[in-house]
Specification:
- This protein is an all-alpha fold.
- The chain has one domain.
- It has helices at residues 41-61, 73-102, 111-120, 122-135, 144-167, 172-199, 210-238, 244-270.
- Helix 2 (73-102) packs antiparallel against helix 8 (244-270) and helix 6 (172-199) packs antiparallel against helix 7 (210-238).
- The chain crosses the membrane at residues 43-62, 74-101, 113-132, 144-165, 177-198, 210-233, 245-268.
- Keywords: Membrane, Transmembrane, Transmembrane helix.
Length: 271
Amino acid sequence: MSPPSPEIDSPEPHNPFQSPAMTEVEAIEPEHLEKLTLPSWRLVVGCVLVVSGILGVTWSSFPDFQLPETIGGGLILTFIVCLLIVAVTAGMGISLFIQAVRRREFSRLMPGHWRLIAFATSIVGQVVVGIVDLFAGTVKTNGLGYFLVYMPEAILAFAFYGWVLRTTQETKWWRQYAWICVVYYLSIGSETIARWLVYQKGFGSPWNPYNGFEVAYVLAGLVAMIAFIAAMLADDRRQTKRDWYHAVGLVMPPFALFATWMMFAIIIRAD
């Protein structure tokens, strides 16, 4: 029996039914994105320590945030752990933002970096409401506390993701995620304003308009989660190389948000 022809596996020219040769199969190449120059550990540690100090003063010294004397030791330990989780997450986000601005590498921020920076905006409202409560003491009476907690975050995160969309080098899925985040924070800001107007009796109708905005940001959050998962799967398929800050940013913000809620819950429970 004669040996098989060496051309048996070669594609026949002009044959639309011929399977492509193995060398012609398109490979999925990893994305070649310009990487951000990561912040030094000194900058990261410094930001974490500063945030820890600010949050510690805010939550322990200002009248409406201070821990009651009746709180148990276990709850105090839980409170401290939660505060550290929030401080580390926000501190990393602030250090990344400082590094990106200082080196003019904003367009090189990765999606995980976005999430860390966006979470860092949430501590601004906590500090603002603490300062206002210290000097005015009216945040509990007219809905001002809710407004001051959420409005700074909504404005800053909305502006941040808007700038991300103008500058980012990221893929379509991550751009779509950023667009949804813009809608999400816009909905939070709108809901915050509407709720405050209801407190001020700015609407003559018994219908509370902020309910519609609540539905909007819940839906935006669900859609953002879908886009988030799809973008991660696309990264995995393309074998996109990322840094460890990106990985932390994908995982930590939900835990830090839960830690923030836990701190509020401990204060309310103790009161």
